[in-house]
Each structure stands twice: as C-alpha cells, then as structure tokens.
C-alpha cells in the first residue's frame, strides 16, 4: 500500500532518528549561485567531497545569453561565481559542463538530457525547481546551501517524510492547451501554499499521454504550489527517454534497470493524505494577472476585483498585487499590452516548447515595439532546434535567438525587465521584481507567449489559429 | 557552524503581508556573492527603497520605532519561492533572529534551522493579534523562549509553539550537523555497498 514516493523513500533510508531519517542521495546537481559558500564551508572545516562521481556542475543562472559570453562577462560577481564553480568542480573531480561546452544549459534541462536522472533515484540541487526531475519517478527536491554542503560531505540528508498528495488529471487537452496550463490550473486550485509539507504525485490519463518534456513542465512548478516534490510514475515513455543517453545505464545493466523501474508505482490501495482532481477537457489556456503563480485565470477572463474577496488578508494581497501590476479590476486579460516576451526557463525551454512557439510564430511578425527572446534550455536543445529550422522561423519573425541559460527568468544576468515593463513569460514566477526591479510578469505557455509577441498584447492563441 | 539560539526579548517588527517570497526578501542581483555575510544590505530592497534609492518611510523596517527589532512577524507562506539560503543570511545580517508566521515554505524553514534562526509557527489568529498589537503600538516587545517554547506578545499574551526535538537541541547548542552525520559514516558506507549491488548502474562516475 505504499505510494511511489514511499517506495523510493524507503529504499534510500540509511538510518533514522526521532523526527527524521538520513536519506541517501544518488545524484547531486550543482550550479554557480548556491554552491560557492558550500564548497567554502567544506574547505574551512577541512572536509572533502565524499562522492564527486555522483555530481554534475553547470553554470546557468548568471551566464549571459549573448555570443560574446565565452570571451567576456562584464559583471564581476557573475564572473567570480562562474569561476568559483569551475575551480570547485575541477578541484573535487566533479563533472562540469562549462560555459563553452555544447552540453551547457539550465541545470534542470541538462540533468535529464545527460541521462543521469533516472526512475527511482534521489536527486537534489540547490535550486527550488529541482522538483522538475521528479517527472522520471524520482525523489527530486531543492535544498539550501547548507544542505548542499551536507550532501557534498556526506552524500546524504536528514529529511522528514512529507505528506502524500495525488493530483489526478483526466480527459483530453484541447488544441493549444499545454502542460503549462494544466499546472497553472492546479496551482490556482490548491493555492501557492496548498502543497506545503506535501509530495505531489501527478496521475491520470492526461499525464500518461504527456511526453517527458510535458511531464517535466508539470513537476517543475509544483514548488509554486508549495510542494518541494512533484513526481510521476515512470512508464514506457520514461524508459524510452532515458535509453541511450550518455549517462543512462549501459547495455550491461539496461534490462536489470528497466525491471527495477517497472516496480515503481503507487499501489492501488495506497493511502493519500489529500486527493485533488482536475478535468482536462474543459481546460483553457491560462495566464496570470498578479504576483503569485496562484493568480492564474483562463485567457478569456478579466482581472478580478479584490473587493469581492471576503478574507481581509487575501483582499489586501490582491490589492497590492494589482497596484504593483498596474491593473484595474474588470480589465480583460486580452486587453493587456506587453513590452517584452520571454520564451525559455526550466519550465518551458525544451524542444517541444520551442516547436509549439515556432508553430505560432511561423510566417508572422513580432509586433512593433515588442522585444521577444527565445532562449533554448541547453546547447543540445539549441542544436536540435537549429537542425529543425526553428531558429530561422523565430529570427524571420523578429524574435531574438539566444544561447542557453536561465536568462530572463530571474533577473540576475543581463536579460531583465526595466522598471514598469510588462512581460509575457513562459517562466515560473511572477513575483514582484522577479524578472528585474519593477518588472511585471504574466506567466503563460510557449504558444501563448508567441501569440503575445505577435499581437503585442496578451492574446488567445486559439483565435489566432482560426 | 550555526549560531546558538537561546531566547529573545526584543522589538517585534510587523510585516503584514502573506506569501512573502524569497525574491522579495533578497532580490537575485544580491546573490552574486561567494560569501554568507553582508547580505543585509539587499534585504527587502524593493520594499525598503524607492526607485531613486530613497528609504520608503512607511515600510516597517524603516520606521524608527521598529529599528533594531530582532523578531519579524509576518503573514502566511513566508519564504516561498526560491531555495536561496541568502534569504536567511540577509535576515540575520540585518539583525533578525526569529520569524513568526502562520506558515513557512518548507525550504526556507529548513534553511532557518541550519543557520540558528528560529522559525516560529503560530495559529493565524495569534499572528494576527501580534501584528495588530505591534502596528497599534510600535516598539512593543516580543519575547521568544525556545526552551519553554513560548512567544509572549506586547500585551502579555502567551502563545505556545512546537519545534522538532532534534532541531531544538541543534538550535540551543549550535551543533554542527555535518559533524554529527559524519559520525554515521559507517552506516552510509554500508548503505552504499548494498545500493551498489541492487542498482550498480548508479555507480558509474559521472565525470568518467
């Protein structure tokens, strides 16, 4: 009767104490922003990295996405962090996909591409979007820098087992309705803290029909509902994705690995602390209007009125959000103009995302006055997109085609919003200032963001297709 | 190595907002450091300062009567979003040693404990009454007693809170958790040997 999470958890318990267990960590991903203090702490205490062969390091958060980045990075802090990562990885014998490596990219894109993320593993990274990797049926979670240091030193972490939630999505998604819309709808339903203290397993036929790319988009944003863990039971889609990748189990272990992976699913009589259901059939493309990912509405909707809220705390939050976003209640979402468009991030920069955006952009032009960026999630995604001619589609339509990195998701590299600018973004957070101080973010799917670039305002991509 | 936490009696600083995310606590541009210190400068930057860099006089951290307070009292889901431990380092660098809220994000909560900062979860009504009291009479004292696990508000109201027993010991004694775990190295070795037999494909060297 255990859940998938419970099965993977139980197989990783090294020892237990009163409140928590020591959980073995199979794999550890490292990036430049949350790791320097961990390596410094390790060194100050005279300790070494216990299992460097279980780790992969890649710079992503503050790398510029312009071609000159391998010769110069103007920002001193960024340069120092990237250099620190390089020295720490090389010093400890940790694999590194450096800035000029064709495999470099966003850590959560690169991990799965390399084949190191597999069903049934535990994997951590000093980054809250590590839940992305739970799409493989893994326990994947974000940690702070002290915990990064702990994993470097011990290959294990003390953890308390989270409560178990299942989100079941059934029905067929309509055209232009994507995994991004599913997860935005889930967050809107359970709220930005609805998943706090939980691991969320996503189940149901809609999820089963999704590609690994789509499943990763779903698990990526579970943290926006407060849950550190999102996961999906592995199946043939998962096995096919992993097979043949450089760090996947080789031919000598493959049959045994797949047999092991096939045992990883929640039992039919598994006990759930909370169950949530969502109907996919009636789902529409979603857009956020506020400053929390829970502020998502179908694109046909209008900005809500805080005064309709009974709860005074929520009313105050909504008022603040509207003031920050410079929006008035009742404004139709499709009447909101945008200055910038960002297609990228660990949520939506995989090949399928780029294909979906390119299909909308093809033969059209970015609206005048709008700056639109397409930032592939990794060098490998970029190469594949170029082989498929997607770069030409974007460039011909007036989009910029950039080098891989976190880019405009988080305002810590040159790609950021100016104060007051409004952005249609495929990223994961619409917090105040997230994309740059004073910037205003509307979260949406890649085809919806492409439609916004072309119309110059938030648009219903389905109408454009008609 | 974390700092010891014992008890506090200090000015309470009300932050009457819910879903305070870690981007608000410390914007990403302040994360470009390889140190744990000096982050207080960027704490709540966009809320403390206007676009011209001038202090916003109405923000609680800028009001003279709240200056020097070491306990922040805030709305639900405090610390949501990014895993950046810099959020805790910034709060501590500024002088805070405890945050009281109806709920915390899981990662932020963990990050607090790793640094000797106390996250206190109290019922929403209790937090509401503390915030109201601190807003009504700025400069009011809040007492946090970790040993007795109580918070005493400015009006003398006492609220009990829970804390995991091991976390409590670590906070009180300022223990180095890595050293404690390294004492389990034998068990980790044993686990690794078993795991290597069951899932040998997970033991290839990723750098190899």
Question: What does it look like?
Answer:
The complex is a heterodimer of chains A (466) and B (208). Chain A has 466 residues and is α/β, with parallel strands linked by helices. Chain A has helices at 4-10, 36-44, 76-92, 107-114, 145-154, 179-190, 205-208, 212-220, 236-242, 254-262, 312-325, 351-361, 379-387, 390-397, 446-455, 461-465; strands at residues 13-16, 21-24, 27-30, 55-57, 95-96, 122-125, 139-142, 156-159, 163-170, 198-203, 229-231, 274-279, 286-288, 296-298, 340-343, 371-374, 400-401, 422-425, 440-443. In chain A, helix 12 (351-361) packs across helix 14 (390-397) and helix 12 (351-361) runs parallel beside helix 15 (446-455). The model of chain A has no long low-confidence stretch (mean pLDDT 97). Chain B is of the alpha/beta class and 208 residues long. Chain B has a single domain, classed as Aconitase, domain 4. Chain B has eight helices and seven strands, in the order E-H-H-E-H-E-H-E-H-E-E-E-H-H-H. Chain B has helices spanning 22-25, 45-48, 86-94, 106-114, 124-136, 165-173, 177-182, 185-198, and strands at residues 7-15, 71-74, 98-101, 118-121, 141-145, 150-152, 158-160. The longest helix of chain B has 14 residues, at 185-198. The mean pLDDT of chain B is 96. The chains are: A alpha/beta (466), B alpha/beta (208). Chains A and B meet through helix 2, helix 3, strand 5, helix 5 and helix 10 of A and helix 4, helix 6, helix 7 and helix 8 of B.
